[in-house]
Design a protein that fits this description.
The protein has a single domain, classed as Anthranilate synthase, CATH 3.60.120.10. The protein contains 13 helices and 25 strands. The strands form three sheets. Strands 1, 2, 3, 9, 10, 11, 12, 13, 14, 15, 21, 24 and 25 form a 13-stranded antiparallel sheet that branches. Helix 6 packs across helix 12 and helix 7 crosses helix 13. The longest helix is centred in the last third of the chain and has 19 residues.
Length: 448
């Protein structure tokens, strides 16, 4: 471990560099305790991928557990962060992995959309990381040995001297309101017929994109437009030439402490725009909204069931139900669901029991996934999948991949959606998709 003279914002400056290489940046910058630590890896020593035609896609989760510490212990790197809790693998899981697990999940229908050459999951292993601690206002370099730390330090010095990345975006095409509105109307018929009780539908935005490491420039602009506790930039290929994911997520999908067995999820369902007025009044409005309350309650019940699949009997509990949390532009309803995993639960078991995230599918979950495939107009890719890290102790921290831009083969795609229940109003749901897209549009406006 090496202490540095750098402040936490140095990590974002390094990311904005256009120097060659592959980066993974897990970035909390909203000032809350939930985003205290940020992690930056440069040039992975190993990368695992799941191809779309992989015969056993879940095998990657067995590989991610290889070499883990037997317990989380070990020296404390910073207050609240041990070596066991340090990221060992950083990466992402595509929502579309669910369709490769059709038999394991119990999906009965065939897929509707063609999937492109994007992997279904990828994770990088780094032999050293830059760790920003916002509470103590410091940056540490942590690695497997002194030579790994020295290599990382040299790479970061090179990034500091490099030219700045930039992004150029062409005309943005949004799925028309009337088209997405028609899909919402069909979904509400499913709700009213009792086929599903809630379903999450997404609307797509796309644009041609180019530039010098455009994902890095977009990540810088989006983090300024929307501070969050669980942001990320994840690249495949040199400077993200194969794929770059830029996420400003605030929703925790899973946090699993392998040593204690504590498994936690924090679903977000329920949204209201923040204005220049009284947040307390807005919070009361959100907390008492019948539609938002129903939407949230159903997902909490769904996630209690998902965690229960791998939990000790009687250990699943809901904490801080229907809490209202403020973010840069929005207030959200959030609950915390916790459980203790059964003694021999593996990472594969935990992922299979809970993926894809219930808050972005619906209930009943399998029926919702099948109808999402039929009602949406394109495959989601990594949107509504998960991104984050597997730590040295074999535990995991993953965010739901919402507010996430995907840069692939010269195209930027972005989705925004919401949960639909019987009380949903089509125009209001359309407005919500546009509200959730402001983080991208405002970021692009900064770059023009």
């Amino acid at each position: 471990m090496k202490d540095t003279e750098h402040r936490p914002e140095a990590l974002a400056r390094w990311v904005a560099s256009a120097q060659r290489g592959t980066l993974a940046f897990l970035d909390g910058n909203d000032g809350s305790g939930r985003g205290r630590f940020s992690f930056l890896g440069v040039e992975p020593v190993e990368t695992l991928e799941v191809a779309g035609d992989a015969p056993e896609p879940l095998a990657i989760f067995d590989r991610l557990e290889d070499g883990r510490l037997l317990a989380e212990g070990g020296d404390e790197l910073a207050l609240g962060l041990t070596r066991g809790a340090l990221p060992r693998w950083i990466g992402a899981i595509s929502y579309d992995l669910a369709w490769s697990l059709r038999a394991e999940l119990g999906l009965r229908r065939a897929t509707t959309h063609a999937r492109d050459a994007r992997p279904l999951a990828f994770f990088h292993r780094f032999d050293a990381l830059a760790v920003a601690d916002r509470l103590r206002d410091r940056v540490l370099l942590v690695g497997e040995d002194e030579s790994a730390i020295a290599r990382l330090e040299a790479r970061l010095e090179g990034l500091a001297r490099a030219a700045t990345s930039h992004v150029e975006v062409g005309a943005i095409e949004a799925e028309p309101r009337e088209v997405h509105g028609a899909s919402i109307a069909l979904a509400l018929e499913l709700v009213r017929d009792g086929i599903v009780y809630q379903i999450n539908l997404a609307r797509r935005w796309s644009a041609p994109i180019e530039g010098e490491a455009p994902g890095r420039a977009l990540a810088q602009a989006m983090r300024q437009a929307s501070p969050v506790p669980l942001g990320a930039l994840l690249e495949l290929g040199d400077r993200g030439e194969r794929l770059a994911l830029v996420s400003r997520s605030m929703e925790l999908f899973l946090r699993w402490d392998r040593a204690t067995g504590l498994l936690e999820t924090r679903p977000i369902k329920g949204t209201i725009a923040r204005g220049g007025g009284d947040d307390d009044a807005l919070a009361r409005t959100l907390a008492t909204d019948r539609k938002e309350h129903a939407e949230h309650a159903m997902i909490v019940d769904l996630l209690r069931n998902d965690l229960g699949r791998v939990a000790e009997v009687g250990s699943v509990h809901v904490h801080d139900a229907f809490a209202v949390e403020p973010y840069a532009r929005l207030l959200h309803l959030v609950s915390t669901v916790r459980a203790r995993t059964a003694e021999h639960a593996s990472l594969r078991d935990v992922v299979l029991a809970t993926f894809p995230p219930g808050s972005v599918t619906g209930t009943p979950k399998l029926s919702a996934i099948e109808h999402i495939e039929a009602l949406e107009r394109s495959a989601r890719g990594f949107y509504c999948g998960a991104l984050g890290h597997v730590d040295h102790a074999g535990g995991v921290t993953l965010a739901v991949a919402i507010r996430t831009a995907q840069l692939h083969r010269g195209e930027l795609t972005y989705f925004a959606g919401g949960g639909l229940v019987d009380a949903s109003v089509i125009e209001r749901e359309l407005d919500e998709t546009e509200l959730k897209t402001r983080v991208l549009l405002d970021a692009l406006a900064r770059e023009r």
